[in-house]
Structures are given as structure tokens and as C-alpha cells.
Amino acid sequence: MSEFKHISVQQTAELIEKDNVVIADIRDEQSFAAGHITNSKHLTNGTLHSFLQQFEFDQPVVVVCYHGNSSQGAAQYLVNQGFEQVYSLDGGFESWRKQQPFSTDTATNSTAKND
């Protein structure tokens, strides 16, 4: 794979159900603490090296940012590092939190789907 792909909230939820995906959240510390996809990894410049060492290049990775813009550059970076299946979450965490449950540093929150 030479480029990342886009992925919807629903497709990401399906990958999570299969337990076959790494969610890499690139937002700032406070935003991540306030809410993130359950079991996601907080990917920062400081954690990048360990992230690259921890996961296999053939494991799917979904990159999450605020609105789905910054994640595209980070997703392409991971592709360039050798990851084979990299996705950018369309709409970012803001779309996720409107449609799916999420976690905070202290508890799990449920959000109703907004139609």
C-alpha cells in the first residue's frame, strides 16, 4: 500500500468489533483525556518510537484526530514507515463521539446516536 485510505465511523466500529485494529489518536493530551475511542493509543512525538516498535506492519491502523484533517498526514507518515493498512477516520473524533461510545481517563461514556 502506497497511500492511506479513508474510513468511516461505522467501518472503524466494525474493525474494532473484530478486535483486529490499532486506533492511534494524535490529538493533544487534554483532548485525549477528555474523550477517546476505547483502547486507543495516544500517538505523540514522544510515543512514536515505541508505537513503531510495538505493532506489526501488517496490522490495520486507524489514525484519529479532531475532525479528520490532521490524521491524513499522520496516516501517510505511518504508510511511509512501512505500515500496510493505514486509515484516516473521516470526521475524526468529533464524528465518532456523536455516533459511538467512548472513554475518558476516568470513565466510559455512552452517547446516543444523533440522527
Outline:
Keywords: Cytoplasm, Transferase. The protein is an alpha/beta fold and 115 residues long.
Give the helices and strands, then pairings.
Layout: E1 5-7, H1 9-17, E2 22-25, H2 29-34, E3 41-42, H3 48-54, E4 61-64, H4 70-81, E5 86-89, H5 92-99, E6 102-103, E7 108-109
CATH superfamily: Rhodanese-like domain
- Report the end-to-end length measured between terminal Cα atoms: 35 Å
CATH C-level category: Alpha Beta
Number of strands: 7
Strand-pairing-aware structural class: alpha/beta
Could you describe the largest sheet, including whether it forms a barrel? 5 strands, parallel
- The CATH architecture assignment turns out to be 3-Layer(aba) Sandwich
GO cellular component, one term: cytoplasm
Protein name: Thiosulfate sulfurtransferase GlpE
InterPro entries: GlpE_sulfurtransferase, Rhodanese-like_dom, Rhodanese-like_dom_sf, Thiosulf_sulfurTrfase
EC number: 2.8.1.1
Characterization of this structure:
Keywords: Cytoplasm, Transferase. Its EC number is 2.8.1.1. It catalyses: thiosulfate + hydrogen cyanide = thiocyanate + sulfite + 2 H(+); thiosulfate + [thioredoxin]-dithiol = [thioredoxin]-disulfide + hydrogen sulfide + sulfite + 2 H(+). This protein is α/β, with parallel strands linked by helices. The protein has one domain: Rhodanese-like domain (Oxidized Rhodanese, domain 1, 3-Layer(aba) Sandwich). The protein is built from 5 helices and 7 strands. The strands form 2 sheets. Strands 1-5-4-2-3 form a 5-stranded parallel beta sheet. It has a two-stranded antiparallel sheet with strand order 6-7. The radius of gyration is 13 Å and the shape is globular. The protein starts with a strand and ends in a 6-residue tail after the last strand.
